[in-house]
């Protein structure tokens, strides 16, 4: 007679393990409350709770972002007790994760896992902070997001003059966005706002420009500013130290090395 062989798990024989049904529990003060798990959806997980998902060979502990600290500690204890009672301390693996840091293996057990969870976490965190301040007796009001402050109107008129050896030349539209670091320029940007005219005058000095041209540029710019109607603002700009406002008046700007000859 041949001995009757003992039943051996499929995994021991090298075959696939039998898929165990998924079990989802909500942890309520170390008490595991079973939940319906025919179809797992991300919306089933609440940010102020912790859950255990038993997938047979894997057991996951998911902790919501707004769960109280005391509840987080209780959840970890509940997981240890559950694994011990199931007699599975040395079988499979247990994974502990917090909301927003889920591993791929955990997400795959859900039918749908949205991609915009991060924004929801941000909103939940903001609400939690507001609730804490309200509990402490503070009045809480939401401050709207500030729009980027516009430094200057984008509908103005740009003019650029080249100053070279005492000569002043108004550049054409194609040339006014091409500066040379051996020259000095006067830049005028005029625009209207709230029914008023504004004029911005900037003296730009290339790194290789000579001192005589720099002095002449400042003098000529001051004369131009005095002759316009409306409010005029003047300033000096060195190449390599241009403020943000300087680049805003140009649609595009290229700075070449060398000199731009116009006067003979």
Automatic annotation (TrEMBL):
Location of the Gelsolin-like domain: 36-106, 176-246
One Gene Ontology term of the molecular function aspect: actin filament binding
SMART domains to which the protein is assigned, alphabetical: GEL
InterPro entries noted in UniProt: ADF-H/Gelsolin-like_dom_sf, Gelsolin-like_dom, Villin/Gelsolin
CDD domains in alphabetical order: gelsolin_S4_like
Pfam families noted in UniProt: Gelsolin
Record protein name field: Gelsolin-like domain-containing protein
């Amino acid at each position: 007679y041949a001995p009757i062989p003992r039943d051996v798990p499929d995994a021991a024989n090298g075959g696939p393990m039998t898929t165990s049904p998924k079990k989802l529990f909500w942890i309520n003060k170390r008490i595991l409350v079973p939940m319906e798990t025919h179809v797992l959806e991300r919306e089933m997980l609440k940010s102020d709770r912790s859950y255990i998902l038993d997938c047979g060979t894997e057991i996951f502990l998911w902790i919501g972002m707004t769960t109280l600290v005391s509840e987080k500690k209780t959840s970890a204890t509940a997981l240890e007790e559950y694994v011990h009672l199931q007699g599975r301390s040395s079988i499979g693996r247990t994974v502990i994760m917090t909301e927003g840091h889920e591993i791929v293996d955990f997400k795959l057990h859900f039918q749908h896992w949205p991609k915009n969870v991060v924004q929801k976490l941000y909103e939940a965190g903001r609400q939690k902070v507001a609730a804490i301040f309200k509990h402490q007796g503070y009045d809480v009001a939401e401050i709207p997001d500030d729009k980027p402050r516009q430094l200057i109107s984008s509908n103005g008129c740009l003019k650029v003059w080249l100053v070279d050896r005492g000569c002043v030349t108004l550049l054409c539209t194609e040339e006014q966005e091409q500066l040379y670091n051996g020259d000095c320029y006067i830049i005028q940007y005029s625009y209207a706002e709230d029914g008023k005219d504004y004029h911005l005058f900037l003296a730009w000095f290339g790194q290789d420009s000579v001192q005589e041209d720099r002095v002449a540029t400042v003098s000529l710019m001051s004369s131009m500013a005095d002759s316009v109607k409306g409010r005029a603002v003047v300033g000096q700009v060195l190449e390599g130290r241009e403020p943000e406002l300087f680049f805003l008046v140009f649609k595009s700007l290229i700075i070449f090395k060398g000199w731009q000859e116009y006067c003979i």
